């Protein structure tokens, strides 16, 4: 790598904007630590005239990012557009083919096309770095690839989405319902103002799980979705009942090897308030890695926002500038294996089931009979009648049972006139 | 670096022994990931015939480790003897001068001679790696050097000694006194069986603080000790009172920049039970890094024992084998600056003071008068009389006050006949 490093930043949204500023502020420090000079020679965004933190140098500005490849000699390109396909993919592809190192915080791109892009980077002998794609400022990918490189990892899990964690924490603290807290999160910039769906339905966390799996288990990115559930169906009622039971609801992303098969899930979990993970609140993210011989390693930090994201983007820059050439997923694409996916029907948990029913005789026994026919044994029942509306809430905590069993068992409640809505299911994390 | 890497392991105590085994188990995996072959060509320990996990290959065994340099071509040497000077220093020195990369878990050596040895490594263009010297299996040094490389770090602190954390946790859980719990810790292998002093008096944690400071603030290792206190004076009584106050006692190592000066301390702290650090129990270590723009990063994991230590030693090996050449302290020795030390007289905290007194009239007012003369204002007093023995325990929680003020104020109680022993002081962590 030359002594002078030319940089392009493509995409000047919240992240790109902050990054550009940070690059200017930290320029000297980075040069000091790496012994190389950096120069931002090109920036690109849709709108040249939008108000930004900095004055746009029009000579460096490209409305069409593909022009950059023709006009400038770039060493490192930051992709900060954020799409899973389209122009994001095309830019990264073109850069790698032109032997330009790429750094991106784009989890959906990596989760979808990471295998292909990693291979492309390797063929062209450049780096593709994406530390910021998982858990914001927590350098968890680097830790798996390097700090824990020689461990045998059996499981990686954690709170990978700050938006949902903020909403769940705030519902508990403020006693306010989902919709209201979501609007508050949007006002505070913790949730997308337009369409927060990808955070809420678990999609965002699932992309991160896929990236973590690939690194932890040296495997290709899986194309399957074992279980992906978000927090859209969690009501304040569930949070209050959990609270009484000494539990807290967390949206966990889990990746583990069970019977030599890969099992990836994102779903809300009930965890004990006394556990570590039960106390990671607000917008914080946390990742727990179980490895041998290291034991359990925990990393916690701010999971989102331009500050933590920039920290990770710059650590990638730093790594590339120090000449630390790496395979994007820790080992060569050729050596990354396919791991078959665990059949999620066999996934087994204790369950929290909440039924909203008409307060009539026989309803409880209908439910318990049905459960017992499927050999789902009950650990605890809490029935709370609402005399006024002649309704009742029945919460049942079951012993461990398999997914397929529950799915079949609960089916009937879709069309029972005494059961007012399909039961809410939350898995207990053991 | 050649394709064939020759390794020497010097010192076959608990760590060296485990490492040697791990190297053999992980050989294939490391070769797979790095594309290089490893070969342990020399091992050395005092006693060739001691019982070990593995059969000693007598051809590779050296009773005098310095013979290795004459007879073998070594690429990487593991120093696992563990002294702060003497043979440990001599071995590392000789290896570096012979252009051999060195990996060591030896915190006392690095805390004492790290500056000199780092310079030697740089002059000879080889690596000196010591990830295992701080916080066992937690890759915290690598995280500061790389993952958070471009952050401006203002503070690093945490629980850096597993032995003392185990003892404090177990005293609380078992309700047993210090001496008894210490013996239990020794039986379980959590405390040195012979002389646990260096863990208990804060020396071990202080060495780690020094290494963390040098990395976090890009400075030379400080030769001064601001405050170094261990847990030897903590009694079960203090733990119980803390418990009533919703607090927990933790031995914290703290390194921060105050008024552009370096402040390093190790001392017991009272922390709230609701905080993260208040819930890191048992032999766990935790390090909290405050940086800009990343915010607060937390890393937790097993801080000691041969498994976690080997994980870090092998991550160093992996890094060197991948050709990841680094300055031992992140930046060149020439650029590491001296930072002046903060005057600890100005260090200011709320305090917990426990007085054991004769249960006589006027004793409390003697104490409070003395405190008020030094403008130490009282936030809370808890007096517990022991009628039978005509004694009383007085616990005072003060508002913030400076170290020098307290030191002067408490002096008088050394020779007061109504005060049965010099008061126990524990600082509240804010």
Keywords, separated by commas or semicolons:
Dihydrodipicolinate Reductase, domain 2; 430 residues; Alpha-Beta Plaits; Rossmann fold; 13 helices; homodimer; elongated; alpha/beta; ten-stranded mixed β-sheet; 27% strand; 35% helix; six-stranded parallel β-sheet
Strand content of chain A: 25-35%
Largest sheet of chain A: 10 strands, mixed
CATH superfamily of the largest domain in chain A: Dihydrodipicolinate Reductase, domain 2
Total helices of chain A: the number is 13
Which two chains share the most extensive interface?
Answer: A-B, 53 and 53 residues
Q: In the CATH hierarchy, what is the architecture of the largest domain in chain A at level 2?
A: 2-Layer Sandwich
The protein's oligomeric status is: homodimer
- Rg for CA atoms of chain A: 24 Å
How many DSSP E strands of chain A? Answer: 18
Q: Give start-end ranges of low-pLDDT stretches of chain A.
A: none
The share of residues in helices of chain A is: 25-40%
Overall geometric form of chain A: elongated
Taking the alpha carbons of the first and last residues of chain A, their distance comes to 49 Å
User: How many structural domains of chain A?
Assistant: 3
Tell me, rounded to a whole number, the average pLDDT of chain A: 93
Query: At the first level of CATH, what is the class of the largest domain in chain A?
Result: Alpha Beta
Structural class of chain A: alpha/beta
């Amino acid at each position: 790598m030359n002594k002078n490093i030319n940089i392009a930043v493509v995409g000047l949204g919240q992240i790109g904007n902050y990054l550009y500023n940070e690059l200017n502020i930290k320029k000297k420090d980075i040069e000091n630590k790496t012994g190389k000079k950096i120069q931002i020679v090109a920036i690109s965004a849709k709108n040249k005239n939008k108000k930004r933190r900095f004055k746009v140098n029009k000579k460096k500005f490209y409305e069409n990012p593909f022009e950059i490849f023709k006009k400038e000699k770039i060493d490192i390109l930051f992709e900060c557009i954020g799409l899973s396909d389209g122009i994001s993919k095309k830019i990264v592809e073109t850069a790698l083919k032109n032997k330009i190192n790429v750094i991106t915080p784009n989890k959906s791109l990596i989760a979808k096309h990471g295998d292909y892009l990693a291979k492309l980077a390797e063929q062209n002998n450049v780096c593709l770095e994406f530390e910021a794609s998982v858990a914001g400022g927590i350098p968890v990918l680097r830790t798996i690839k390097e700090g824990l490189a020689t461990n045998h990892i059996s499981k990686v899990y954690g709170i990978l989405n700050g938006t949902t964690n903020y909403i769940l924490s705030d519902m508990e603290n403020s006693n306010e319902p989902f919709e209201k807290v979501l609007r508050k999160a949007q006002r505070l910039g913790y949730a997308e103002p337009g369409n927060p769906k990808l955070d809420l339905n678990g999609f965002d966390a699932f992309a991160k799980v896929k990236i973590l799996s690939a690194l932890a288990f040296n495997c290709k990115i899986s194309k399957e979705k074992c279980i992906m559930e978000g927090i859209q169906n969690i009501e304040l009622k569930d949070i209050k009942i959990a609270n009484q039971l000494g539990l807290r609801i967390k949206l966990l992303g889990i990746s583990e090897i069970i019977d030599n098969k890969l099992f990836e899930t994102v779903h809300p979990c009930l965890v004990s308030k006394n556990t570590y993970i039960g106390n990671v609140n607000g917008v914080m993210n946390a990742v727990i890695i179980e490895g041998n011989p290291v034991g359990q390693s925990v990393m916690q930090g701010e999971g989102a926002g331009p500050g933590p994201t920039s920290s990770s983007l710059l650590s990638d820059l730093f790594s590339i500038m120090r000449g630390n050439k790496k395979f994007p997923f820790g080992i060569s694409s050729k050596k990354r294996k396919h791991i078959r996916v665990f059949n999620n029907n066999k996934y087994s948990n204790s369950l929290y089931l909440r039924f909203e029913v008409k307060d009539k005789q026989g309803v409880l026994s209908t439910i318990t009979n049905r459960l017992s026919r499927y050999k789902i044994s009950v650990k605890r029942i809490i029935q709370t009648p609402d005399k006024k509306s002649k309704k009742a809430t029945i919460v049942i905590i079951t012993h461990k049972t398999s997914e397929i069993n529950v799915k079949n068992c609960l089916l009937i409640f879709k069309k029972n006139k005494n059961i007012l809505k399909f039961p809410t299911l939350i898995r207990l994390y053991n």
